[in-house]
Specification:
- The protein has 254 residues and is α/β, with parallel strands linked by helices.
- It has one domain (3-243).
- 42% of the residues lie in helices and 11% in strands.
- It is built from 10 helices and 6 strands.
- It has a 6-stranded mixed beta sheet with strand order 3-2-1-5-4-6.
- A hairpin with an 8-residue loop joins strand 4 (124-127) and strand 5.
- It starts with a helix and ends in a 17-residue tail after the last strand.
């Protein structure tokens, strides 16, 4: 999935969700929906695909969850589930949308992914107003995304994480620490042991030398590079405190 396809799916899902919310009397300008991108393509919220390993953008699917606002809770019986069903029916798998564009969205709910504690404070907001995305779009921090994949460790998850470690986009030590912050009971002891063994298999001394979550000065430089490629596509970290002291290399679009 490339960035234009990413924005196309976000624009389509936003339009569908906001139209439904408007039909329920919600002022969607004053109170836009909050769309959370889960799964592999959430990485596009923090890194430009030009610098990403190919394994990270193979998928033609994007997982989207609506994080209900107060207005949603008051206006719908079960907003998260209803919005997920609406996305599936409109632009999901085996729909006319997929037939036309070869990509699709899967409607999920916020609790679908097994995530580390504090993940909400690290969400990355993606701004793409010129793409007519009417909602607030939030993507996972890359380490939270990889921790969620460690909680499954399917073959494609292993390949995804390995490619980011091998390319220097993800530090093994930082990811191991983030894994320790996963306290969701759905992550069994057996999977946790497998995840730790998987990370231990990497040469951490070599990998850590190339770890690179960018400090503020580098983020600013790469925000400009991303703007040059896609003028309306800037993204910001919801919380940068944790990342300020981490080493950097120029791949991130923050």
């Amino acid at each position: 999935m490339n960035r234009e396809e990413f924005y196309h799916l976000l624009r389509a899902s936003s339009s569908i969700i906001e139209d439904e919310r408007a039909r329920h009397g919600i002022d969607t300008v004053r109170s836009p929906a909050r769309i959370l991108v889960l799964g592999s393509q959430s990485i596009l919220g923090s890194m430009h695909e030009e610098y990403l390993p190919e394994e990270t953008t193979y998928s033609t699917e994007i997982d989207l969850a609506v994080m209900p606002t107060r207005e949603d809770v008051l206006s719908f019986d079960n907003p998260a589930e209803e919005f997920a069903d609406l996305i599936d029916a409109s632009i999901g798998e085996d729909t006319a949308f997929q037939d036309a564009f070869d990509v699709y969205a899967q409607g999920v709910e916020e609790h679908t992914a097994v995530l580390p504690d504090g993940w909400q404070s690290r969400l990355i907001e993606v701004h793409a107003t010129e793409h007519q995305i009417r909602s607030v779009v939030l993507c996972l921090d890359p380490y939270d995304l990889c921790a969620a994949k460690l909680a499954r460790l399917a073959p494609n998850d292993r390949s995804y994480i390995s490619s980011l470690i091998d390319s220097g986009d993800i530090s093994v030590n930082i990811l191991a620490n983030r894994l320790n912050e996963v306290r969701d009971p759905r992550m069994s002891d057996g999977i946790r042991v497998q995840a730790k063994d998987f990370l231990d298999a990497f040469d951490t001394k070599t990998i850590n030398a190339s770890a690179k979550i960018a400090p503020e000065s580098v983020k600013a430089a790469f925000r400009s590079r991303l703007d040059a490629a896609t003028p309306d596509a800037t993204s910001k970290q919801a919380s940068t405190t944790e990342n300020k002291n981490k080493a950097s290399r120029p791949r991130h679009s923050l």
